[in-house]
Amino acid sequence: MPLMKSLSILLLFSVLFVVAKGQDDYVDISTAIKQRLVTVSASASGQHYNEKGIELVMRNNGNKKIKVLIGYGAMFSPDSTEGQPFVLGEKMIVVLDKSRERKVLLQTYCANAHLHSPFEGDEYSYSGEASDTLKQVLEYMRTHNVSNTLAQNAVWYFTNRSTNSLSSVYDEDNLELVKYISKLTGDPLPDYYIKRTLNTDQGVLPYNPKVLNIVASYDIQLQEPKELTLGVYNSDNEMIQSVFERQTFKKAGHRFKVDFQATGVEPGAYYIRLYAKDEKLKETVVQVE
Which letter does DSSP use for residue 168 in this model? Predict the structure, then answer.
């Protein structure tokens, strides 16, 4: 075998060995805890549950340095049965020298919208891992700098789907996240979106059922000029919010946006309707809790 070819093969083997060694140079937090390589205590940091809400104190139980991987989707459950669990929204490798400990603050999200947010100092324990799909979404949100509020609504789509549909994953400045989740899960994009406020104070239930706004959009192609009316109607067919009335639009493609101000209206069904004179062109039924 020629000398240069032999050297090339040897160099390639050396590079692959270094890469493989680098990849295996840490242990995941689950294994580290099970094998008692580290001791981990966790408590609520006092920050909001969709910020850096948890503080970990990690101690190396061995006599040599160890690297511990804490990945997207690591779950921490509270000692209290009424407290909300946390899911981690970031990844970190914690380096622990022999017999030493470190404190780290980590990005969290509430993993159950119907349990109370913690008080500072409430104790938590590592309890497992989120689904692979949620882990992918958490990584996407971290790498794309998604706001904490939007990210929290996305997490609740996976953990509390009965009350937080995909329509809750809305930010008019970031429509890419809901499209990403729809493509990843195969769930269809919603016909309309809901805006709610988050309760982030300590000791409260984070889920707020009251709808502030409902946002919908219509795309329409007019083959000739038409006089259109767009608005929100109640069950008695009364217009309670107008977007425009008897306005003429030319032959072309049009996109219309409706931002239904739902604060203060009675709970029930409402109808977003687009009319051409008396002809109903589009209708979306929305529910206000």
Answer: G
